[in-house]
Amino acid sequence: KANIGLLSDIRVALANGAEGVGLYRTEFPYMARKAFPNRHEQYEIYKKILEGFSGNPANIRTLDIGGDKGLPYFEYPKEDNPFMGWRSIRVSLERQNIFREQLSAVLMASIHGKASLMLPMVSGIDEIRQVKEIIGEVCVELVRAGIPFSHDMRLGIMIELPAAVQTAHILIHEVDYFSIGTNDLIQYTMAADRNNPKVKRYYDPFHPAVLHSIKRVADVAGSEQKPVSICGEMASIPIAAILLLGMGITEFSLSAPAIPVIKQAIRKVSLETAREVAAHALSLESASDIAAYLEIVKADLKL
Predict the structure, then answer these.
(1) Structure pTM?
(2) 271-283 and 208-223 helices cross at what angle (nearest 10)?
(3) Counting CB atoms within 10 angstroms of each CB, which of 17, 161, 168, 221 has the fewest?
């Protein structure tokens, strides 16, 4: 599947063989405007996304602002460390007027395709239950207004925080799927700002702590027979895709131009081989050992 943010991304995604949308970044339309789009404006955008992918699934992520993504018309508190601050689902739950408009728009658009809702930066079960309660209230409002919507839209969460990794066995019972956002998961696991060149060497997707976190989440989802995807940049690295496949990741969502490359890489190996690669990588004790081993695998597979 493809990661997209703009309507123009649909054509590029389809041209590269995307089988749906693994991550639609809804904040992009917000960032392109001078004020918050109302639910009808959002509905039209989500409708076009769903129709553009002709029945293939589309995971619509709720507003993910804060950190390095701001809106010029929305006032934020001054924070010493915005990545650890008021962002993503935290903003949505505190500013429910904005959140309810978005939920209404997604629900209204859900009749035009195979939409699912995805919550970013979830840290615990209370957030999921609060969102479910709000969704229920929004559904009641739509029913009263006579507005049609899908009554079986799936709900998923992004696993980006160590807190979510550690409580994955609890969270899985409240949702239909997991999507691991490796960009933030690596950043928060390693305490390394991915945009800071001074700590770039610590931002390592192949650090044992990162790999074991992903494996734990994949195992939890697999045990409940629920899908788990990767939607961070790690999925765009061919050797990483094979490693992730062997760890139990069942879906990949990435930048559209990388899709053919990753498909080609996956087709080069059997699932058994991928599992052997993952098992050996997870047995190693350091990021440097893992990186060296994966270089050998890359050479053997001619990646």
Answers:
(1) 0.95
(2) 130
(3) 17
